[in-house]
Amino acid sequence: MNFNKEAFQKLTAIVGENYIFTDAETLMHFGHDETEDLSFPPQVVIKPANAQEISEILKISNQYKIPTTPIGARTGLSGGALSIYGGIGLSLERLNKILEIDENNLQVVVEPAVITQVLREAVAEKGLFYPVDPSSMGSCWIGGNVAENSGGARAVKYGVTKDYVLNLEVVLPTGDIIWTGANTLKNSTGYNLTQLMVGSEGTLGVITKIVLKLIPQNKHNVLLLVPFYKAEQACEAVSAIFRAGIVPSALEFMERDAIDWAIKFLDGISVDIRPDHQAHLLIEVDGNYPDVLMIEAEKILGVVEQFEIDEVLFADTDEQKNALWKMRRGVAEAVKSNSIYKEEDTVVPRYELPTLLKGIKDIGNKYGFQSVCYGHAGDGNLHVNIIKGHMKNDNWQIEVPKGIREIFELTVSLKGTLSGEHGIGLVQKNYMDIAFSKVHLELLERIKAIFDPNNILNPGKIFPDEL
Amino acid sequence: MNFNKEAFQKLTAIVGENYIFTDAETLMHFGHDETEDLSFPPQVVIKPANAQEISEILKISNQYKIPTTPIGARTGLSGGALSIYGGIGLSLERLNKILEIDENNLQVVVEPAVITQVLREAVAEKGLFYPVDPSSMGSCWIGGNVAENSGGARAVKYGVTKDYVLNLEVVLPTGDIIWTGANTLKNSTGYNLTQLMVGSEGTLGVITKIVLKLIPQNKHNVLLLVPFYKAEQACEAVSAIFRAGIVPSALEFMERDAIDWAIKFLDGISVDIRPDHQAHLLIEVDGNYPDVLMIEAEKILGVVEQFEIDEVLFADTDEQKNALWKMRRGVAEAVKSNSIYKEEDTVVPRYELPTLLKGIKDIGNKYGFQSVCYGHAGDGNLHVNIIKGHMKNDNWQIEVPKGIREIFELTVSLKGTLSGEHGIGLVQKNYMDIAFSKVHLELLERIKAIFDPNNILNPGKIFPDEL
Questions:
Q1: ipTM exceeding the 0.90 mark
Q2: Which part of the chain is the FAD-binding PCMH-type domain (chains A, B) (predicted)?
Q3: Which residue, among A150, A298, A334, A146, has the nearest Cα to A224 in the 3D structure?
Q4: Can you tell me the distance from the alpha carbon of A467 to that of A457, in angstroms, rounded to the nearest whole number?
Q5: B339 pLDDT exceeds 90?
Q6: CATH number listed for the domain at residues B5-91
Q7: A421: alpha, beta or left, given left = phi > 0 and alpha = psi -120 to 50?
Q8: Which residues of chain A lie closer than 8 angstroms to B186, CB-CB?
Q9: Which CATH number fits domain B219-328: 3.90.180.10, 3.30.70.2190, 3.40.50.150, 3.30.2420.10?
Q10: How far is A410 from chain B (nearest CA, A)?
Q11: Integer-rounded Cα radius of gyration of chain A
C-alpha cells in the first residue's frame, strides 16, 4: 500500500522535512522492538517536537485513516510499538526533557523519552527516589513504562509505574489535548482517566507529559543470594517471607538455567553455583537504619533455613551487590542470546508460584519444549522463556502456542492473569479470551472506540483478532 | 411519579416480599446520607441477597427505565447515594460477609456491606493490616470506600482505597456480571477496569465482591501534637517534614476552631489548648522498632522547631493516643453539630497548602462566610467547612456558591482538584467545569454511556447539569 502523497505533504508541513523519514534504514530501525525477532516497519517515521505537533499529526491520521503507532525506546517485550499495519511510526524521541523536579512536593514532571535510569539518577541527586526499575531501565523510556505499566525488581515493596503516576498530558487520538487528572496524591474527582491511560499501550492516546510522585530515598540495603536445592521450595519460601511480616525491597527468583546462562553471557561475574542448586532467590531489604536491616536479614534467614538450602551469600560491598544485580538483570538477554524464544509474563498470587512453576514444566513436557523461568517472585510475576533450541519449525509454530495457551489457562485458574508488566501488545492478544469474557472484551473495545473512533492509534494491539 | 406496578411485581419476585419496601419510614431512612441536610428518598427500597439478584433487578431497571441508586452505609459526604430521581434505592446491606482472609497471599475477599473497621479488626487478628482508615471507619462500608476512593489519616504513608483494590466483582448496569481484573499485585492485561470502577461513585456498576491487598502490620507508633502560633506556618511545616526525608504514617492539620469544637462536643478530652494557638498538627510515625521511631520523632521535632510553636505533646500511652485520635476524628461531627454547613474536600500538592488556606480565608472575607478547615495535610487534602451560623438564607444560597466556585478555581490553579476523598456526587457536580475541559467531560460521559446506555444507574451524579 502506498502512503497517501497529500497526507505526506501535510505531515511534512507539520514537523518540517528534517523530521519525517521514508528511507529503508530508518523504517527498518523503527520496525522492531525487543519482542522475539519480529519486524514491522512503518511506511513513514515522524519525529514531532511537542504535543501540539502530535495533535496536528493525529488529525491528519484521522482524515486519511492512517494507522499511527507511537514508538518509544523499542525495548518492549509484547510488540506494542510495532507498526503492524504500516502507516506512521510516531517516534517520541524529541520529547526528552525532565521539565521540573519539584522538591517541595516530591514530584517530577517529565516528557516520555527520558530514559528511566536517567530520571532515577536526576531525582536521586536531590535525595529523592523514583523506585520503579524495570530490568531494561538503562535503555527504556519512562513514557513506555507508563504505556505498559512496567514493574521491576522493587515493585514488591514500592509498587509499579501506575502507583507513581499522578497526572498525564495526553494527546487523544482525535487530536484533543487533555490533562487526565491533577498533581495531587489523592483524587476522587470523576472517573480515573489517569489509570485508564496507564497500561493502555499507546492505544488510547499519546502521552506527552508525566507527573510522577517521588519518595524520600532510603540510604541502606542488604542483599542476600539464597541457593535452593529444589526450585519449588524456592517458590514456597517467597510467600513464607511475607507471612513472617517482612516486606523485602526485592525478591527475585532465578531457575538454575537462567543463572548459568547469565554467568556465561556476562563477563566478570563470579558466583559459586553448585550443580545441585536448582534455583536461587535474590532478596533485598532496604531502609535508613543498618541495624534494623541486619535484624530483618536475620529474620529472612530464619525463614529460608526451614527449606533445603545451601550457604547464603551476604553481599556486603557495593561491588558484590552490583555483580549480583548485573547477573539478575542480564538473565533475560542471556537466555535470549542462546536461542530463538518466546517470553510469557505470567503473574499469579504469590503463594501459587510453586503450582505455576510445576505446571509450566509439565506443560513443557507434554508439548516438547524447554522453558527457563525467572522473575519477580515477590509479586508472583514469573517470566517464562520458552526456548526453541533444536525444536522443529512445525512444532514451534503449532505445538508451542497450544502449550502457551495451557500455561495461561493455568495462570488464570490460579486467579492470576496473562501479563504482570510487559503488556499484551501484539503477541499475547489472541490469549485475551482466557482472561476475559466476551462481555468484558466488548466493553474494552467500546472504550477504545470512544477515544479513537477511526481506530487510527496503534491498531491491532491488545484485542484478539476475533471476539 | 408513580412507580410502575408491573415492574414492582417483577422486582418482588426477584427478592421476595420481605426485601422490598415502600413504607414512608424506610424510604425516608434511605433518602439521606451525611451530606448537609439533604433528603431524596427513593420510591422503592430493595435489599437483594447477591450479585445474581442485583443483575436481575438491573435488567428490570433497564426494561422500565427506572433510576436505580446503589446505597451503602449512607455516610457519604457528597450525596452519591441519594435517590435524586426517586426510583429504586438498592440497599447492599445483605452483602455483608468477609468471604476469605487469605493469609498465604496477604489478601482479603469481602462483600461491600462490611464496616471498614470490622474488616480492619478481622485482618488485624491475623497480624495483617488494611491501612485505609476514613474518619467514618466505625460506620462506613468498604463498598462505599471503593465507590468513592476513600482516603483517611494513614493515606499519607499507605495510600488510599484504590491502592489496595486488586480485583472487583461488578454487576454492570446492563446486568452482566464481570470480574474487573485478577487477584495479582501486578497487572498489565488490557485497560484497567478495576481502577476505572474505583471512585466511579456507583455510576458504572454495582460492586459485589472486593479483593484487597493487605500488608504486614507495624507494631509500634509514636504520636505528637504540635501547637502552632500561626496556621499558615503549620501548613508550611507539612512540606518541610517530607523534605527532611520522613514519611509519617499520619499528618493531620486542625485549625483552632476545629479543635475547640471537638473538645466541646466530645466528653473526656483534656488537651491544653492556649488561646494563641492558631492551629495544630497531629503527627504519627509507625514501624516495628521503637528506637527508630524515637529517632524519627526527634527529626520531626527538629523540623517543627524551626517554626513558631508551643510545647509539643508526646502521646505515650494508648489512652493518650486514643484521646487525640478521638478528637481528630470527632472534628467533622463537632463542627457540623454546630450549624448548617457545606463541606468541600479540596486537595492540592502539599506545598501549596499555606496558599490554599490563606486564599480560603480571603474568599470567606469577600463573600462573608466563616470557614473551619482541617484535614489530611500530608496529602494536601483540606476539608473546608463553611458555616452558615447567622448568615441570611439569601446569602447562603447565592453568595456562598460563588465563594465555593472561587475556592475550587484557586485549588485547580494550584494544580489541585475538587475532591481528594469524598467524591463529586451530587453537591460538587456543577463545579466540574473548573477541573475539566468540555472535551474531557464529554469523554467521561461517553464512558458512562457505554456502561449504562439507558442511564439507569445512579443518574444525576458526577456530571454537571449542563456541559
A1: yes
A2: 38-217
A3: A298
A4: 20
A5: no
A6: 3.30.43.10
A7: alpha
A8: 149, 151, 155, 160, 347, 376, 379-381, 420-421
A9: 3.30.70.2190
A10: 13
A11: 22
